[in-house]
């Protein structure tokens, strides 16, 4: 058993969080992760309205009596969402764990803290992590350059970013970006983290609500199959490398660059959602991290989390034995 500040704070068995994922963080996956001993997180903006989020929260609660959370991500969006409405609905439904991500979470964090909630804030720089500490968040989710979705604009990989977090932060932090197995969990703990956050790995589980063909595509892909779009718009996103994302990058690279309006039809989340619905990985943009290179199967969440736990324990034990042996020599 790996007990950390995260497992104690959230009352979970395994220090593994399933982070927010647009179109993926729905009740079947969230409840399966929580039932398996991790923390499942519903993605608020995947629901079309705050009322639909209420329904999703009730569905999740019917499927698990374990803790779960709600993610609210603040990033540029084609139709700016009613963030406060989603936050209010979730608090009124009794949710007490939130994951915030993106820019300027101050108002949301104050609202959640005023209602006695635990807030995990995801960020990609130590500077932002320190600002979030000042806002009073309970846990930081430190997202390295390896991650799927939005890695920020500073391109610092997890190895240095997490070691910097160990130097600078007082608040417990979890390691995010590139984590998919027990080796990753053991490494994260060595880097001072209280657990890990996984996205892409959870997309590729039995309970993940996306088409089987997309899960198979993740299994057969490697760490070389992602690309960054929106670099020139300063809203960088790591997504699966397909004909659509390559076209976006080409448009951004042409002389004079591209405006968001030139890209909107190619990149819209509504089009990306179709990928997951019909199982065509070429249909639109979908997020994927370089952890794809580590993913070789489609297990249940229960099997995945038990495996991660035992692998990590074995590796930590192995390291301890190696150190003891060296000390004796
Ligand atoms: P969307 O259809 O509104 O936008 C598609 C993509 O274009 C997103 O990456 C978005 O950030 C980007 N974008 C939109 N307007 C932009 C602009 N003016 N300039 C630069 N980039 C712009 O996105 P969606 O799929 O409907 O998702 C809704 C929101 O949720 C977006 O803000 C998205 O970034 C965010 N999101 C959340 C998660 C999560 O884990 N919760 C994951 C992915 C995306």
Automatic annotation (TrEMBL):
Keywords recorded for this protein, A-Z: Flavoprotein, FMN, Oxidoreductase
Q: Which GO terms describe its molecular function?
A: nitronate monooxygenase activity
Give the top-rank taxon of the lineage listed in the UniProt record for this protein: Eukaryota
Q: Does the keyword Magnesium apply?
A: no
Q: Which CDD domains does UniProt cross-reference here?
A: NPD_like (cd04730)
InterPro entries listed in its UniProt record: Aldolase_TIM (IPR013785), NMO (IPR004136)
The keyword Oxidoreductase is annotated on this UniProt entry: yes
Pfam families, A to Z: NMO
The protein's name in its UniProt record:
Inosine monophosphate dehydrogenase
């Amino acid at each position: 058993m790996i007990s950390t500040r995260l497992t104690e704070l959230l009352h979970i068995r395994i220090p593994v969080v399933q982070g927010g994922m647009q179109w993926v963080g729905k009740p079947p996956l969230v409840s399966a992760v929580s039932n398996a001993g991790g923390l499942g997180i519903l993605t608020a903006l995947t629901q079309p309205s705050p009322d639909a989020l209420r329904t999703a929260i009730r569905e999740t609660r019917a499927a698990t009596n374990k803790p779960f959370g709600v993610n609210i991500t603040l990033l540029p969006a084609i139709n700016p969402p009613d963030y406060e409405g989603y936050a209010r609905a979730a608090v009124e439904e009794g949710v007490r764990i939130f994951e915030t991500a993106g820019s300027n979470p101050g108002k949301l964090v104050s609202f959640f803290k005023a209602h006695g909630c635990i807030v995990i804030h995801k960020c990609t720089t130590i500077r932002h992590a320190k600002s979030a500490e000042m806002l009073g968040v309970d846990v930081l989710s430190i997202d390295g350059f390896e991650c799927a979705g939005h890695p920020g604009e500073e391109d610092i990989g997890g190895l240095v970013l997490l070691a910097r977090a160990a130097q600078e932060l007082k608040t417990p932090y979890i390691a995010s970006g590139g984590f998919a197995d027990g080796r990753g969990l053991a490494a994260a703990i060595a880097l001072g983290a209280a657990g890990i956050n996984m996205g892409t790995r959870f997309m590729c589980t039995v309970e993940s609500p996306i088409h089987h063909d997309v899960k198979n595509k993740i299994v057969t892909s490697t760490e070389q199959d992602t690309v960054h779009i929106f670099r020139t718009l300063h809203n960088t996103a790591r997504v699966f490398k397909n004909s659509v994302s390559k076209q976006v990058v080409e448009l951004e690279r042409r002389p004079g660059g591209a405006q968001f309006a030139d890209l909107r039809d190619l990149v819209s989340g509504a089009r990306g959602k179709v990928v997951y619905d019909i199982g065509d990985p070429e249909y639109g943009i979908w997020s994927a991290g370089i952890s794809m290179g580590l993913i070789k199967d489609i297990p249940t969440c229960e099997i995945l989390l038990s495996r991660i736990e035992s692998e990590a324990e074995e590796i930590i034990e192995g390291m301890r034995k190696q150190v003891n042996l060296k000390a004796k020599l």
